[in-house]
Amino acid sequence: KSCLKTELQFSDYYCLLAVHLLLDIWLEAGEEPAAWQCLTLLEEGLTHSPSNAQFKLLLIRIYCMLGAFEPVVELYSSLDAKHIQHDTIGYLLTRYAAALGNYIAASQSCNFALRFFHSNQKDTSEYIIQAYKYGAFEKIPEFIAFRNRLNSSLHFAQVRIERMLLDLLLEANISVSLEESIKSMSLSPEEDDIPWKDLRDNRDLTVLFSWDPKDRSISEEHRKLSLEEETIWLQIRSLTLRLISGLPALGHSAPHPKNSEKTTENGVSSKIDTVRDLLQQLDAAVKSGKQFLEQKIQYPVLGPPPSRMASFFSSGSCQCQTSLFHLVSEIYELDTNGLEDSTVIQERIGNSFKLLLQQLTDLFSTCKGDLLEVREGSFMVHPNILENLVFFLETISIVLWVCSYSDAVLRPCRSNLQKKKKKKKESAALPPVFSSFQDYVSGLQTLTSNVIDYIKGLEVTLTALKLEELSIEDTFLSPEEKKFTKTALVKVQNSYQHSIQEIGELLKKRLDSIRNLKV
After folding, report:
1. Is 195 helix (H, G, I), strand (E, B) or coil?
2. Average pLDDT over residues 229-239
3. Are 430 and 201 within 8 A, CB to CB?
4. Cβ 399 vs Cβ 513: under 8 Å
5. Which of 27, 25, 22 is nearest to 42 (CA)?
């Protein structure tokens, strides 16, 4: 921490004080031009004091708040954080890594953080062995305490879960199957290796200077609330990952005889029990998250950044994802009961398909708008659009994985039905669940195509704004200051452009997979 809080030149203090006042104007009065003035001052200040950690930390926070992750990676790297600081200040980077659509940079950031944790797990074991070997017994408790601190780290658990979800998003049913991806990660829905009772919040929430300790300082209450929020969000993400990992294991099972008890055969019955238990836990975690957000907690400006939980709920992504996992239970019930005498189940499934299409359409509606717009010589950004697009991509990926399971169940059912019809030489209509599924898949194709077209439109708009070479019309800024404003604007524009390009490319791959789903 000491290397981050280096001695500041007198002029640096004035610069930081001005930035803090401008942050208040931006976040409390809602005047967005103040955010660009912050970036202008900090970018200029960094040219005069290239080692100033406070300038870099503030730039990281502001760029992330504006939805631009790309410039943050280099800034964090230039901090040259040492050892344990990757656990204490790493949250400044990883909190936004998967949230803003810059997946290549997000993967690199998560990998970097995990390398620190994994190398220290290995090193501390070696230190303990060496301490025994050379009789330095008084050091052994220190090494064990340090290892326990890292193993119980909230940040470590968060990065690990997000990294695995990111891997599935980038690879599952694209380069490899979902089942292969889950096997390569050694994921199991039954296993939960997060030490919930011993989780430690090792974050340094005072790493940013505060000029008004009375109003700006982080209270103990804020620390507890932030830890509670992050823990609930981690529970939701962990349960989501475990539910996804349970999909390939369900497979297709032969229908059970009527009125017979369902026995555990090859672990299949226990797998659905596990999925249903996880779904109950997810519902409980979601309820806890909603109750927490009802408090409408405001952290200090330079305090802990809020989690992604609020956007997860407000975008509609939460409703979609929980509906999808409930659908899995319905599909399994149809699979075990068979098509005969399952009219009620088929009706429920058909209604679930219709509901999901509506929920996905509503989610898409939260993604509409301009990422960057110009108003009377000033800029307005809407990073929530980018965050919602990221949630849409994640949700449509889960949609695809659940569809693949549904497809694996319905295909054999249809095949068996057609064989029976051929033997009896009948031409009866197919059960309604098949047409419901086809309508659902067709609706998904149309919706995903519309989102891809919309993203292309965002790209065109951003490119046009770049070609116009925008600049802020501020008579109070000198030509030199306007140059730094331009630098910040270009960084934000480039980050937005690369993010939506990556989201668009992944959505195209998902659309290709959806097109192959035809029972």
Report:
1. coil
2. 98
3. no
4. no
5. 22
Please identify which residue in the block is written with the tokens 């017994």.
137
For the CA atoms of the chain, what is the radius of gyration?
A: 26
Identify the DSSP state of 339. Answer: S
pLDDT given for residue 253 in this prediction: 56
CA distance 63 to 71: 7
String of DSSP letters for 434-490: HHHHHHHHHHHHHHHHHHHHHHHHHHHHHHHHHHTT-----TTS-HHHHHHHHHHHH
Nearest of 29, 26, 67, 32 to residue 380 by alpha carbon = 32
CA-CA distance, 238 to 317, in Å (whole number)?
Answer: 16
Residue 312 token pair: 């997860």
Token readout for 351 is 């209604």
For all residues of the chain together, what is the average pLDDT?
Answer: 87
- Answer yes or no: are the C-beta atoms of 243 and 279 closer than 8 Å: yes
Cα separation, 211 vs 499, in Å, equals 35
* Whole-prediction pTM: 0.90
d(CA 394, CA 391): 5
Distance between CA atoms of residues 416 and 430, nearest Å: 12
One DSSP character per residue, 94-139 reads HHHHTTSS-HHHHHHHHHHHHHHHHHHHHHHHHHHHHHHHTT-GGG
Q: How many angstroms separate the CA atoms of 232 and 76, rounded?
A: 27
Q: Looking at this protein, which amino acid is placed at residue 259? A: N
3-state class of 380 per DSSP? strand
Residues in the chain: 519
Residue 185 — very low, low, confident or very high, per pLDDT cuts 50/70/90? very high
DSSP state at residue 196: G
Choice between 434 and 83, residue whose per-residue pLDDT is larger: 434
Amino acid code (one letter) for 163: R
Quick: pLDDT tens for 509-518.
999 999 888 6
Place of tokens 């049913």: 173
Q: Are 226 and 158 in contact (CB under 8 A)?
A: no
| Calpha distance 166→98 (Å, rounded) | 7
